[in-house]
Amino acid sequence: MSKKTKGNMFVCQSCGTASLRWMGRCPSCGEWDSLVEEVSGVSAGRTDREVKAVTLADAANMDFARVITGNSEFDRVLGGGLVPGSLTLLGGEPGVGKSTLLLQISNLLAEKGAKVLYVSGEESAEQIKLRSDRLGAGSRNLLVSVETGIEDIKLLVEMEKPDLLVVDSIQTMYSPEMSSAPGSIGQVRECTMAFLEIAKKKGLSTILIGHITKDGSIAGPKVLEHIVDVVLYFEGDMRQNQKLVRTVKNRFGPSNELGVFEMTSRGLQPVDNPSGLFLAERKKHVSGSVVMAAMQGTRPILVELQALVTQTSFSTARRMSAGVDPNRVTLLMAMLEKRAGIILNSCDVYMNVAGGLTLSEPALDLAVIGAVVSSYRDVPLDDKTIIFGEVGLAGEVRAVSSADARIREAFGMGFNQVIMPATNVDSMEKKEVKKLKAVDSVLDFLEAAGL
Ligand code: TYD
Ligand code: MG
To answer: In this structure, are residues 417 and 388 in contact, taking their beta carbons and an 8 Å threshold?
Structure first.
């Protein structure tokens, strides 16, 4: 093995940084004792590569006809179906439902006549059979293999010529080009590159499962995001029955799309009406509760935001929030103090988004303020009112995107009043306006909300 073609590198198992010498601490992410020696054969011996270029005009003609899986929520997060030749990563904590979902998708496509190869390094064929019996997934077009060597899988693909390849999981795959153990950053990256090559050369849709821990630290998925075409992550509280899949990246469609599923005794079922699900356990006439219309990708979803404001018994007041950015909450409270004279520095403030959803758009601001002030004054908001709008540091209420879609969802779900930015209302057709309360400052808002 000459030094020229095979370079020994020390690769951080936490962030993927490569270094020529071993160090006790990764200079990039600061992790201790995370550098592992990896022998890589990058580009060595790969002289059989076909090289070609196409004109952009021809490339445009290779229009992708999406394959609809038939699972509405999964199709949604993919941007309308599977694109042939695409490489997708589905990440999530162990036990969240990755294998279940992809076995169901595999079976759906197999029943439509597509040939599906499900490769599992996690479970035996018997275990997969047990699961598939439970899911009613018994299509004859669904092939299962427990190979983990990348060369063996390439052979299998040559032999079976599947239309969809599912790899469960990328951390169990093994490439002989690397000397490190399966699951190490080098192996995970090398195997993903190999699957990318298979996907692109054969036009084979490939979905990789990747395990990820809460902080995203275990070797893998984060490092792969830039290699694959589509990145999907399970998000939210794992203990809940509703499971959320978020599109983090999509080269063929909108990102930030949200798929909502429910775990049942027969696997993950798509939820047709997520707003209904997220509001199902809402208690009415309770202070600190606000319903907001949030855009999740291209779809509006109604969610309940809850705040609890209490006198602090600590020397510094506590601020905690789940599902909304705590820094944003702190900033909005500072704004409230300055612009509305509501001083919360002796209060603990807790915020939560019911249902485990994570919200990050600016339209959240008014709802956060509504929830905090409602709890602080112990005054419940009208329970048929929806709130959305961005708030600036001067206390001004700013326009948000997709106001029409949000309003439609609110009225569709039986709400009869919307408190929203005046600038959005101004650009609207008159007939709807009487149900809309337009506000242009935070003081205006507090009055409209009766706080
Ligand atoms: P699994 O898909 O194995 O998770 P992952 O591949 O992400 O590690 O499924 C995890 C959980 O789902 C497991 O605790 C059992 C539960 N489950 C159901 O509730 N219903 C079902 O039909 C199936 C197959 C699993
Ligand atoms: Mg699994």
So the answer is: no
How many angstroms does the Cα of residue 77 sit away from the middle of ligand 2?
20
Closest ligand 1 atom number to CA of residue 92: 7
Residue identifier of the C-alpha nearest atom 23 of ligand 1:
267
Cis peptide leading into residue 169 (ω within 30°): yes
pLDDT(5) > 50 = no
Span 161-197, pLDDT tens digits: 999 999 999 999 999 988 888 888 888 989 999 999 9
Residue 410, Cα to own-chain centre: how many angstroms? 24
* Separation of CA 158 and ligand 2 centre (Å): 25
Helices (H), 309-364: 326-340
**73, 97 contact by CB (below 8 A):** no
Q: Whose CA is closest to atom 12 on ligand 1? A: 97
* Amino acid, res. 414: G
Question: What would the pLDDT profile of 12-59 be if each residue is shown by its tens digit?
Answer: 877 778 888 888 888 888 888 888 877 655 544 455 566 778 777 666
Q: Using a 6 Å CB cutoff, which residues line ligand 1?
A: 92, 94-100, 131, 134-135, 263, 265-267
pTM: 0.84
